[in-house]
Amino acid sequence: MTALPYVDGNMLDGPLGEVFAVDLSSATARCANCGTPGPVAGLRVYSHAPGLVGRCPTCVEVMLRLVRAPDRAWLDLRGATFLQFPMPPDRPR
Amino acid sequence: MGIVTPGFQGRPRAEAPDLPPGQYLTPDFPVLSAGPTPRVPRDQWEFVISSETGTEYRWSWDEMMALPQETPTVDIHCVTRWSKLGTTWRGVSLDTLLDGVDTAADYALAHSYGGYTTNLPLEDLRDGQAWLVHTYDGDDLPAEHGGPARLLVPHLYFWKSAKWVRGIHLTVEDTPGFWETAGYHDYGDPWREQRYQGD
Ligand SMILES: [Zn+2]
């Protein structure tokens, strides 16, 4: 096979956008295995599988799994210690 | 459900097989993978069954190949809805591997090179229902299909047939594996269409 066996995390925008109200395309996630933070868009996503598997680009451990049934979805983020999102500045009180 | 298009694969409807519900027939052998493909040299390969008491039973490649070999021809059913009929493999029955293993465990957790895991009841590995296979259709099992050796448990959805299998932990308690902890069914019987939890 000449094609890369994975695609980049930008492909998660649609599937995760179905689950979250926030835009994850600009989120940062930290790998629970090696501790490296990086953009969700930088994950290596294996999509030729029963679900989507997002792996750390540094250590290749699993950071995210998303399984979509016709009427349900499961998101497993145990491989990520945090997700960081850009937010609008707090309004002064 | 279970629709088989007449003429698909050039076979008339009268010869069309009975597929599990929701499956379609494919003449291809799709490659599914949740991660990079491990490359395991045979001289470094080993297969380990560990019992619930911690006893380990190990086979090198040569030791495994010296065991009695079988050539099962079976239908396989992937949870992503393709089925492939009459696939021929060669390998060692799990009955042979479990023959000398002293255990009172009810469950098995298969684990693979690369980190994949999948769980199943130990009884589903016995009685001629499961094999450790190293040959597909007369050729060495390619790495993308799980070589040098994979599990073959054709009566369950194919995610239970762990590619690159390295060993089996025998356990008293059921321990859900890679897909079973992420929404997929704990048992995965294709004829009862047990795809997801609660199916
Ligand atoms: Zn990492």
UniProtKB/TrEMBL annotation, chain A:
InterPro entries associated with the record: DUF6510 (IPR045423)
A single Pfam family, by name? DUF6510
UniProt name for this protein:
Uncharacterized protein
> Organism source for this protein?
Micromonospora sediminimaris
TrEMBL record, chain B:
Supply the Pfam families for this chain: Oxidored_molyb
According to the record, the residues making up region (Disordered) are 1-22
* SUPFAM superfamilies in alphabetical order: Oxidoreductase molybdopterin-binding domain
Identify the InterPro entries for this entry.
OxRdtase_Mopterin-bd_dom, OxRdtase_Mopterin-bd_sf
Record CDD domains: arch_bact_SO_family_Moco (cd02109)
Q: Which domain of life is it from?
A: Bacteria
Q: Where is the Oxidoreductase molybdopterin-binding domain?
A: 35-179
Question: What PANTHER family has UniProt attached to this entry?
Answer: OXIDOREDUCTASE MOLYBDOPTERIN-BINDING DOMAIN-CONTAINING PROTEIN, PROTEIN-METHIONINE-SULFOXIDE REDUCTASE
- Tell me what this protein is called: Molybdopterin-binding protein
What organism does this protein naturally occur in? Micromonospora sediminimaris
